[in-house]
Specification:
It is built from 6 helices and 6 strands. It is α/β, with parallel strands linked by helices. The strands form 2 sheets. It has a 4-stranded parallel beta sheet. The longest helix is centred in the middle third of the chain and has 11 residues. The N terminus is likely disordered.
Length: 153
């Protein structure tokens, strides 16, 4: 078995295009997030598995997420606080046996609506804790990082 197949990542990030997944991962790793940070495909090079938003938004590619999630212990579903749409259908995450948490990003923006974002996460099947963050102001990042570090991965 090669090392990539045998390795288990602590978590996997799910979310639509421009939801802030890659910037969030960089912030959690203590790196400087870029506003234009983008992942391509499925990236196993960081602390967690980072996936391109195209995989979440395309029904054809979404099946790849199920396979990739087998290598993660926790699912983190990211929702942009300024968006009024969820890219996953209702109850989508109930099919995963993993624990699931939500992260509402872009809390620093004036049109952020955290209650709407939390509602979208719950409707998609996120049943765990929801964190509210801004990677650029730093709001909520340390609390999320502390939570992840305390998990039994």
């Amino acid at each position: 078995m090669d090392s990539d197949t045998a390795h288990t990542w602590p978590f996997m990030l799910f979310g639509g295009k421009s939801s802030g997944k890659t910037a969030l991962l960089l912030a959690l790793e203590g790196k400087n997030p870029s506003p234009a940070a983008r992942s391509k495909g499925i990236d196993y090079s960081g602390w967690g598995i980072d996936i391109s938003g195209e995989y979440c938004e395309s029904g054809k590619l979404r099946r790849e997420l199920v396979t990739a999630a087998l290598k993660a212990k926790l699912l983190i579903v990211v929702q942009d606080a300024t968006s009024d749409r969820m890219v996953f259908p209702p109850h989508y995450f109930l099919m995963y046996p993993h624990p699931k948490i939500g992260v509402v990003t872009k809390m620093d923006l004036p049109d952020a609506d955290p209650q709407r974002a939390a509602g979208l996460l719950r409707a998609a099947g996120v049943d765990g804790k929801i964190f509210y963050v801004s990677v650029f102001s730093g709001e909520g990042i340390s609390g999320l990082r502390d939570f992840l570090l305390k998990q039994d991965f």
